[in-house]
Specification:
Elements (H helix, E strand, L loop, with lengths): L13 E7 L6 H12 L5 E7 L7 H8 L4 E3 L8 H13 L4 E5 L1 H14 L3 E5 L14 H16 L2 E4 L2 H10 L7 E3 L6 H4 L4 H15 L6 E6 L8 H14 L3 E6 L5 H11 L5 E5 L4 H6 L3 E4 L8 H8 L4 E4 L4 H4 L6 E4 L4 H11 L3 H18 L2 H17 L14 E6 L5 H15 L3 E7 L12 E6 L14 H32 L3 E4 L8 H8 L4 E6 L19 H11 L4 E5 L1 H10 L7 E4 L6 H5 L6 H8 L6 E6 L8 H14 L3 E6 L8 H11 L5 E4 L8 H7 L2 E4 L8 H8 L4 E4 L4 H4 L7 E3 L4 H13 L1 H18 L2 H16 L8 H7 L1
Parallel strand pairs: 1-2, 1-4, 2-3, 4-5, 5-6, 6-7, 8-9, 8-11, 9-10, 11-12, 12-13, 14-15, 14-17, 15-16, 17-18, 18-19, 19-20, 21-22, 21-24, 22-23, 24-25, 25-26
Helix pairs in contact: 1-2, 3-4, 4-5, 9-10, 9-14, 17-31, 19-20, 23-26, 24-25, 24-29, 27-30
Length: about 850
């Protein structure tokens, strides 16, 4: 097989210097030998330089045996000017054309040396930056990290992260811009670790086990690791006793050496597991050791992309590994191994004990793991990826420069709220964009409530706002409302402080598109203008055409004053692209503000199947009924979502007497987070005046995402008597769960509901018509079922996030090219 190769230099082979801290035992150090064995010497003339010798530099001999010159610079510390001059002399003497630095100290020296001699630098980050809490900015390590980040951001042509987890961590906590950072997963020579034929493997297993003093029938779990802090070997020791209790034939082999070896051996003796372990030190015959083992264990507490893990999978071994860093990018939980929480000895022991005695499952996992390494983590793929990075560095191109053939559109989606309907919408749209091929990063508040869901995109919950929807009931008493208003000034300061944080983050990412959630305040204008300068295209999602008023005379409605129109229009004009829900809202937006129609795209609000994924299996509709004091025969009319004046809760109360006259078992349940304008006491008083107190249940709190499915199962019908609305996530939730809805025909509701087919529409501000429609659903259960089923079927098909994401992505790409979108996309979707 031909060797892959980075590009040749202008006058022959590329003169490449790998600069590394040392050639001691370790994953990053082993990569130098792997690269030297894989690269074509006719295309690349490799020279390796290391700052110092550590542990005898065991990989030095292997490199020299392959004919690779190795230079030891003999640096005593980072301030060793004599060693730095030796590096400069080496670069000039060998006429090096490109420097590839590995590990922190070498990367810092490379950032200083490469520009001095006029050659490009590529640096590989094998570890994420330390948490600020571990090393404060004024500490020695904090200063070093800050210097390294700035030096690489300014001097490196490309900065390579060995996993997406490392790239994400540097974007969150580091100082390197996104346009500099690229991911190149490490690779291994799968052929060198491929398990031998069955007969040879039996002979090999027997020989290796005799050498290690292991019983022939032992079930052997091996780990290969440098014995230093963070590798989690102490967790393995804690788990070993529990494994042996379940499987007396289990044994553990620890291959590797390091500063903690003596302490760990003492720990094994004190824990009474000394007989279960074999400490065999640094080994060159790792392939044979893996072939003689049954399972690979990686108890690491923090790791970027462990080379030992890739080698084990290439050897056909199933793995039990900690779900940290880049490990989940390699191990498919349940398919190629088992992932456990880091530091959890009980979970580690359970996984090992469950897998070791099941040879068929181990073999199936091992085969899938081997195929995964060959397809995605081979040395050929790795060297090819590095070659493309080298080419770009030599040509002076940005490593993250997007091309239609290679790199997807980079989209930074911003949603300030980490809880509630806005983040549910943003999360699902991000899924749709990612499915369409975009490289998506979602930036949101630290109160992010969807962390348990799988996300095919990056999530950065870094904004530090107040929780806009605290758990539990919210007081709506007058004093509480006044206290809320008094806190608004402090909240405003926090809000704009986080705007500044967002601007810094966006400047570092330099995405193609920044997509901003709903603009709520006119004072956002200067920040929106600043954000527009960080990306080629600034997009906004306009959930509400006119702003919602939280206070004043218009509290609970949508403001339409001339001053507000002018300020909001000025803000909208800063956007290169605007998304609105449904064509009626697009028409309203264009009629209200002087905007270029080519910048505005009408899309539906997608379905809400996310709540089925989040459903709490321990919470049932029966339990909710019991909590509300409802009987099994009671017919629940559910009015849920934000509680405000525009929601029309008083209209539902006024319709209730007529409903009860026709169906005495009807019960109105009002559940949701109350807006500042919502006066619960006044609504209770209205219920008393109407004589319906016993038929109403009040739940003035935020319904947690895991509860929603149970509440939907409670409802005979959803009640949505809006006075005014532009879009309704509550309607989409009801439709997704097949709950028939009765809604006022305002805003985009006629586009979301086909009257008589997927729900019932009634005139706004008409309690009598609302009551008649609700009674019809309660009296005709077959009709209600048909409406609910058709609504669910159509919303999952018409309002699928995959199609919405593809349409939005195509819109962004057209806007970047300066093209207009085809007319009336929402109408085309309906006719389709």
């Amino acid at each position: 097989m031909d060797r892959p190769a980075p590009p040749a230099g202008a006058g022959g082979p590329l003169r490449l210097l790998w600069l590394i801290d040392s050639l001691a035992a370790g994953g990053a150090e082993a990569l130098a030998a792997t690269f030297a064995a894989a690269v074509d010497p006719r295309r690349v003339r490799l020279h390796v330089a290391c700052l110092k010798s550590l542990g005898g530099n065991p990989f030095e001999a292997e490199l020299r045996a392959r004919g690779v010159p190795v230079t030891l610079l003999g640096a005593r510390n980072l301030r060793d000017l004599a060693a730095f001059r030796r590096l400069l002399a080496l670069l000039r003497r060998e006429r090096i054309e490109l420097v590839h630095a590995h590990l922190a100290y070498a990367a810092l020296w490379g950032a200083l040396a490469a520009p001095r001699v006029g050659v490009p630098l590529v640096a590989t980050l094998h570890l994420p930056p330390e948490e600020p809490s571990e090393h404060p900015p004024w500490s020695r390590e904090g200063v070093r990290q800050r210097l390294l980040g700035r030096a690489l951001d300014r001097r490196a042509a490309a900065v390579v992260a060995v996993s997406e987890a490392v790239r994400r961590a540097h974007l969150e906590r580091g100082r390197i811009r996104a346009e500099k950072l690229v991911v190149a997963h490490n690779g291994v020579d799968a052929a060198a670790f491929r398990p031998p034929a069955a007969a040879q493997r039996r002979e090999l297993r027997a020989r290796v086990r005799r050498e290690l003093g292991l019983p022939p029938e032992a079930l052997v779990a091996i780990t290969v690791s440098v014995l230093r802090p963070g590798k989690g070997i102490e967790v393995l020791l804690a788990a070993a006793r529990d494994v042996a209790a379940a499987l007396p034939e289990a044994r553990f082999v620890v291959a590797g050496d390091g500063p903690l070896r003596a302490a760990l051996e003492v720990g094994a003796r004190e824990a009474g597991v000394e007989e279960l372990l074999r400490w065999i030190g640094f080994r060159r015959d790792v392939a044979e050791l893996l072939a003689a083992s049954d399972l690979f264990v990686l108890p690491t507490l923090a790791d970027a992309l462990p080379t030992a893990l890739l080698e084990a999978m290439a050897a056909g071994l199933p793995v039990v590994a900690s779900a940290v860093g880049g490990v989940p990018e390699v191990v498919e939980d349940g398919e190629t191994g088992v992932l456990v929480p880091p530091g959890d000895a009980a979970a580690l022991a359970h996984a090992v004990a469950a897998l070791l005695p099941r040879p068929e499952r181990r073999a199936a996992m091992g085969e899938r793991g081997l195929r995964r390494v060959e397809e995605r983590f081979s040395v050929e793929r790795w060297v090819e990826r590095l070659g493309r990075i080298y080419e770009g560095a030599l040509r002076g191109e940005s490593p993250a420069r997007r091309t239609a053939e290679e790199l997807p559109l980079r989209i930074l989606v911003v949603e300030f709220a980490g809880r509630g309907g806005m983040i549910h919408y943003a999360f699902q749209l991000c899924r749709g964009l990612a499915a369409a091929g975009a490289d998506v990063t979602l930036v949101t508040d630290r109160h992010f409530e969807l962390g348990s869901l799988p996300a095919p995109f990056r999530v950065l919950p870094v904004l530090q706002l107040w929780d806009p929807k605290p758990p539990g009931e919210v007081s709506t008493a007058r004093a509480a409302v006044l206290a809320h208003r008094a806190r608004r000034l402090g909240r405003a300061w926090i809000y704009y402080r986080e705007w500044a944080r967002l601007l810094r983050l966006a400047r570092r990412f330099r995405p193609d598109v920044v997509q901003l959630g709903d603009v709520r305040f006119a004072a956002d204008l200067p920040f929106v203008a600043a954000l527009a300068r960080t990306a080629a295209l600034l997009a906004g999602v306009c959930h509400n055409v006119h702003p919602y008023a939280a206070g004043g005379r218009a509290a609970g409605l949508f403001r339409r004053s001339e001053l507000e129109r002018r300020l909001r229009g000025a803000t909208f004009r800063r956007f290169d692209a605007l998304l609105v829900h449904f064509e009626s809202n697009r028409r309203e937006l264009l009629a209200s503000y002087p905007l270029d129609p080519a910048r505005v795209l009408a899309i539906p609000h997608g379905h809400e199947a996310i709540f089925a994924e989040l459903a709490d299996p321990t919470l049932t509709s029966g339990a909710v009924r019991q909590e509300l004091g409802l009987g099994t025969e009671d017919r629940v009319l559910l009015l849920f979502g934000g509680l405000s004046r525009y929601t029309g809760i008083d209209l539902a109360l006024r319709a209730l007497p007529r409903v009860l006259a026709g169906e005495p078992r009807a019960r109105l349940v009002v559940a949701g987070f109350p807006a500042p304008d919502f006066d619960l006491a006044a609504h209770r008083t209205l219920a008393e005046e109407l004589g319906v107190v016993a038929a109403v249940r009040w739940v003035p709190r935020y319904l947690e995402a895991g509860e929603v499915a149970a509440w939907m199962g409670l409802a005979a019908a959803a009640v949505l008597p809006y006075r005014a609305v532009f879009q309704s996530g509550a309607l989409l939730v009801a439709q997704t769960f097949g709950v028939p809805a009765v809604a006022a025909a305002v805003g985009a509701m006629p586009e979301a509901i086909e009257d008589g087919a997927t729900g019932l529409l009634v005139p706004p501000e008409d309690p009598e018509a609302l009551a008649a429609a609700l009674l019809r659903l309660l009296a005709e259960p077959m009709l209600a079922r048909r409406l609910g089923e058709r609504a669910r079927e159509q919303v999952l098909r018409r309002f699928a996030w995959e199609s919405i994401g593809a349409e939005v992505l195509a819109f962004y790409e057209r806007r970047l090219r300066g093209e207009s979108q085809p007319a009336a996309p929402a109408e085309r979707r309906r006719s389709a």
